[in-house]
Design a protein that fits this description.
Blueprint lengths: L3 E7 L13 E6 L2 E5 L5 H7 L7 E5 L5 H4 L1 H11 L6 E5 L2 H12 L8 E5 L3 E5 L4 E6 L7 E6 L9 H6 L6 H7 L4 E3 L2 E3 L13 E4 L7 H6 L5 E5 L7 H6 L5 H11 L3 E5 L9 H10 L3 E3 L5 E3 L5
Parallel strand pairs: 3-4, 4-5, 5-6, 12-13, 13-14, 14-15
Antiparallel strand pairs: 1-2, 1-16, 2-3, 7-8, 8-9, 9-12, 10-11
Bound molecules: zinc ion (2 copies).
Length: about 300
Amino acid sequence: MVKLVVTFLGTSAAAPTAHRGLPAVAVRREGEVVLMDCGEGVQRRVLSESLGIGSDMTILITHLHGDHVTGLLGLLQTMSLAQRRKPLNLVGPEKLLKWLEITAELLHIGLTFPIRFSPAKPGVVLRTGGFRIRAARAAHSVEAFSYVVEEPGRPGIFYPEKAKSLGVPEGKLWSRLQKGRSITLGRRRVEPLEVTGPRRVGRKIGYSGDTRPSERLTRFFSGCDLLIFDSTFRDTDREKAVERKHSTSLEAAEFARKAKVRQLVLTHFSARYTSVSSLVREARRVFPNTIAASDGLSIDVAYPA
Ligand SMILES: [Zn+2]
Ligand SMILES: [Zn+2]
């Protein structure tokens, strides 16, 4: 079983608190890291969570609000001090690269590794070794994107009795069929589906960034195994959420129910709430499988049953 682990590095909105840093979430699978947003101070969390500054990494930036992006430069600088050579994938709004180039130049930061930049746009933005990354437009006060990070599908369950009954000898040919490839046995061709169950879909992680709920995003996040959603406000502060283009915890829960996701994680909490338990309570009334993110929280995302 391949592990897919989501770790929250920062869970506060706009300003940090004593216990919450600015937004950043890491997805890890087989040594590969996808980092979503880079709030200020993210590099310390990258170190404390042992994400590996030399690892295969893709960074996704949702939008150009300071709380989501100012940690990026420090992280890249530390990678260079560590003599990173491996290219780094970066995805975000078009102007992200401009900001990075200008600030790096003004601060005399030379990178020791290439950045492969892909501008965010609706649809598939990047395929890496272990993930397919899709983007959709979010509904925020500036151009903003939401992301879905998906692992590749897996071949179906292998049934040895079926292979035996077809006369397929154990060994290399079994392994070919298990991997979803057809084989030739004498004159007969054996298709993998004759000896395996249907192909299984990979796990899907959705990350909204800052947004109002929208129909478009409901379709985009449909069927996610884990949905990380903007929960800046409590429902009694809904007016503020509407005005500042964020969501309330109740709206996030209504959204999760409509999008039929497996689990909802609330994050990006306004610093005005010293405790987020009331936000979780109101969300759980609508969508019971809801938890609140906290800095350092790791979730091991299981395969769907
Ligand atoms: Zn924000
Ligand atoms: Zn924002």
